[in-house]
Amino acid sequence: MSVNLDRPTLPSSIADGTTLYIAGRWSTATDTFERLDPSDLRRVTGIYASATPSNVEAAYAAAGGAQPAWSETTAIERSNYLRSAADLLESRVHEAALTITADMGKAIRDARAEVLRSVAILRYYAGEILQPSGETYPSADSHTMLMTVEEPLGVVCVVTPWNFPFALPAWKIAAAIGFGNAVVWKPAEPACGSAVFLTRILAEAGLPAGVVNLVTGSGRKLSAALTGNPRLAALTFTGSGAVGSRLRQAVADRNIKVQLELGGKNPSIVLADADVEDAALQIVKSAMLHTGQRCTATSRVYVDRAVAPRLRELLVKHADALVVGNPYDAATDIGPLASVEQRDTVAGYLQLAREENVQFLTRREFDSDTCYIAPTILTGVSEKSRLVREEIFGPVVTVQEVDGFDDALKAANDTDYGLSSGVFTRDIATAMTFIRRTQSGLVHINRETSSVEPHVPFGGLKSSSSMSREQGKAARTFFTTTKTAYVRWT
């Protein structure tokens, strides 16, 4: 199957290689790299600077220089910067959405929704940083008051992935700068266009020079410079487990805060008493939209044998109804994968499924010289298969039959990951038992596993996350440190 290649004109802000933003100034580097439109590999969407370790050092120097004055600004001033950035981004929703789609092929409807979500995140943190700060305690001395004071950490290194190129940086950077920290930001290479766009928004909002510094380029080449700088006070990263593990090891002997979100292999359980039609719709949305490129996407389904035939039928029906095609078309549900590399990774798992004689319930195919992968539902997969054990990060879901709740829960928990999980049931006792016994940081009852909101903690268990949570009040905990003050008077 081929895809209509009609494409709109790219935003006027297309990158020309001047994509390093350090100390309030845009610059380029000796080396650059091109990014191609995932939906049309013949079209260059931007040229980006390949930062060097010396560029990273300059970014840290700028952040360190800006940090003292920025930490002295009032919470109200910092809130106003975030509100201004939210207003500016909202006024440019269409251009920002086009940038996301050009970066990583996300369907334009989902790209627009991501931009609006990013606006909401900026506004949320503009309000959250104005919430009560610190606590007071009674003292044994009647002439002493005890209180805690929250202060910024210092310079924060933010490393973000490509799958949500606006929303994920927004929830990290807004929280970091909102609580008074300066930032050195390294986005994933496929997301550089969005990173440049968001940085321009922050600059236009009047953010002081050096508070946010952007370095584009290879994470592998810049890793040592990013983690080894003496100014580094905290590291927040979302991405693969392998990269996250290397970053954690690199700072293991440093007395800094580390926040890691490292993916998932998220199960949904469908029990015999569930609303099977609704469950099928929720699962397909979670597994297939955004081309399955969400760390919280449903990738494993365990269904009671009594309703398994009906669920499989409905899953195929909903998956086949999805419009896969030109991501710039508002009618499209699913665009291409983000890159040739990601396509090859997912295609490799599908080849493994064929070698293991797994049953394909869906049959759509796409041209092998594109980044498109059709929504794929697999069944009859061994629980020891890599298809069940590893994060595929594409529109692929496995469906396994089980004998009741206990059997399903055991299979669902049998994974190295523990980010998100869900159960579909009408029984409140079963739902509450699942909340207690599921081994995941996010739990969904009669909902898709990929749904999250910014004002509640986000994070997983096992290999999915470090112990530090993101978003909500957890962001305040991570991005600040606490002093205890003893104030005595006579």
UniProtKB/TrEMBL annotation:
InterPro entries: Ald_DH/histidinol_DH, Ald_DH_C, Ald_DH_CS_GLU, Ald_DH_N, Aldehyde_DH_dom. Residues 30-484 form the Aldehyde dehydrogenase domain. GO terms for molecular function: oxidoreductase activity, acting on the aldehyde or oxo group of donors, NAD or NADP as acceptor. The keyword Oxidoreductase applies. The active site is at E261. Transmembrane segments: none annotated. It comes from the Bacteria. The keyword Oxidoreductase applies. Belongs to the aldehyde dehydrogenase family. PANTHER family: ALDEHYDE DEHYDROGENASE-RELATED. This is Aldehyde dehydrogenase. It comes from Rhodococcus oxybenzonivorans.
